Amino acid sequence: MWMDTKTEAKEASGNRASLRRCVLSGLLLCTGDMEHLDKYMQEKLFVMQLVVWGLRGVTRVILANNPLSGALILAALYWASPWQALLGTLGVLVSTLTAVIMGQDSAEVSGGLHGFNGMLVSLLMGVFSSAGDWYWWLLLPACLGSATCVFLSSGLSPVLERWDLPVAVFPFNIIIVLYLLCTGPDNPYFPHHPTTPPGLLEPNGTELIAVMLGIPLSVGQIFACGALGPSLLILGAVLLYSPLLAAHALLGSAVGTLVGKSPSVSAACGPLQKTQAISQALILLIL
């Protein structure tokens, strides 16, 4: 009887250890670049491959490359604002499809390198628009701007490669600046919010709670998301891809938030400056 109980205990312990190994192996398969997924998707339908490429493009915004992280980021965006998430989804798909039609390098397309600029353009068009949510006319410039990013990226790459410089978000910056210059607050079809004159922002406080909340919120601002819950989900998506990348994102966010809360710059520093600090920390990690 005692031997039977001991054997059963050993079997239960072995089963628990096997279950832990299976769970750990499953988690490891979901981290990093998930290159095994590309091999699995090679013989699948083009639509399914396009979804994976688009999700990789979503994560390229934060210098990651994981489709599961991209799905979590999209879920966070739909949680925060379905209209903004729809614009972002449309942007990444249009730019990726444009790259496929233009015959861009297949490795770059499958890696999402032609999708993130289109997503950023469409997201920022929605943020700057003063026409409100579900303004369907905005889909037209979002699609055109996202597609144009691929043309700019293709044209700028040979030029910048001479100086060993990446194209990165240069196409996005060009398109969004041209869009804002061509439209305005009084545009009948594509109005956007007027630029806030310097000195009119309310000074920020220095409370500890505000600083702690500002750190994850600054991570969400990379995707123009200002809600705490979705921002934490975005941070979780970064953590899934790389804990080190998530640590650098938090470091850049903390530095930008603390600088923004200082009295000397509190009236001029906003989410953009914090987002730039995060981006610089991530770039330092990649370098």
UniProtKB/TrEMBL annotation:
Catalytic activity entry: urea(in) = urea(out)
Gene Ontology MF terms in the entry: urea transmembrane transporter activity
Compartment(s) of residence: Cell membrane
Entry's transmembrane regions: 134-156, 163-181, 208-241
Domain of life: Eukaryota
Cellular component GO terms held in the UniProt record: plasma membrane
The UniProt record lists the keyword Membrane: yes
Membrane topology reported for the UniProt record: Multi-pass membrane protein
InterPro entries (alphabetical): Ammonium/urea_transptr, Urea_transporter
Keywords annotated in UniProt: Cell membrane, Membrane, Transmembrane, Transmembrane helix, Transport
Keyword check for Zinc-finger: no
Entry's family note: Belongs to the urea transporter family.
The name this protein goes by in its record: Urea transporter
Organism: Sander lucioperca (Pike-perch)
